[in-house]
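Re: [help] complex structure
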Amino acid sequence: MKIISSYSIKGGVGKTALSVNLSYALAEAGRRTLLIDLDPQGAASFYFRVESAKKFKMRDANSMAEGLRANIRESDFPGLDIIPSNLEYRRLDILLDGMAKSRKQLRSVLEEFKPDYDVIVMDCPPNITLLSENVFRASDSILVPVIPTVLSRRTLEQLLGFFRDEELPGKRLRPFFSMVQKRNKMHRELMAELPASHPGFLKTAIPFSVDVEKMGLRRMPLLASSPSSEAARAYRALCDEILPSATP
Ligand SMILES: Nc1ncnc2c1ncn2[C@@H]1O[C@H](COP(=O)(O)OP(=O)(O)OP(=O)(O)O)[C@@H](O)[C@H]1O
Ligand SMILES: [Mg+2]
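Output below.
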């Protein structure tokens, strides 16, 4: 089983749009896929029309695994299950902090799902917290949407620096450009320069598109509602690019 996360320190960069479309594309490619919505905002759960998770007690790794398992829901799409968000997740940091090996617990919790899934996709909240550190240690790949702007470049540098300082495997980080506007000169310049800063930069860029924004109205992945749109094709290309690392 492989674990792939959609993560950025920055908010509003396209993490959830990626999680939703990538998990759909992985299921379509024949991978038994579980999407976990780790963000208390619950946007991924909303897009898939699933209710928020039932409250459960998270005292330790066992009760956390049990609670997550009890909340698995089938999506409307074959091969794709979802664990929706829960407001209790806002307490995950405190819970993890109280555990031994507090930075490695999530991986052992997720091992529970190994017999049933080929790949887990985690939609992460923005920010950098103890939960993020667990995500970094649990994930085989961490997909990082980067809008080609100066502030996004700075945030990516912060993340790369954190990985260096904490001696985390930087190879896991797979940044890619998100919300790209080809007519924007700054976008073009940063796109020419930035990939050289990190060998794991993905080639696929997701264009800025109102079709992605409309996912909020249609409440389904763009790949399901408009599979031939430019943005849907980009999400599929990104899935193809990372598919080798999503293969158990
Ligand atoms: N490629 C895109 N083109 C146009 N709009 C986009 C694109 N990707 C995402 N959006 C829109 O931008 C907003 C933020 O996207 P999204 O929710 O995916 O970001 P996020 O990083 O998950 O945000 P948060 O940090 O709040 O979880 C949403 O309204 C979404 O519809
Ligand atoms: Mg989000």
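The pocket of magnesium ion (ligand 2) is lined by residues 15-16, 39, 43, 123 (CB under 6 Å).
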